[in-house]
């Protein structure tokens, strides 16, 4: 059985830590940085999660 699609929206300032609810419902601290065309988000909670997004256009 395929789980339902989940989407989320966050608002942030680059380089500033902020509180966020992760997709699994946990409360984490996140920070997003930009290098070139890549946004890197680090979530600090029970474990550290690194999300890299590449922006084009």
UniProtKB/TrEMBL annotation:
Protein name (record): Fatty acid-binding protein
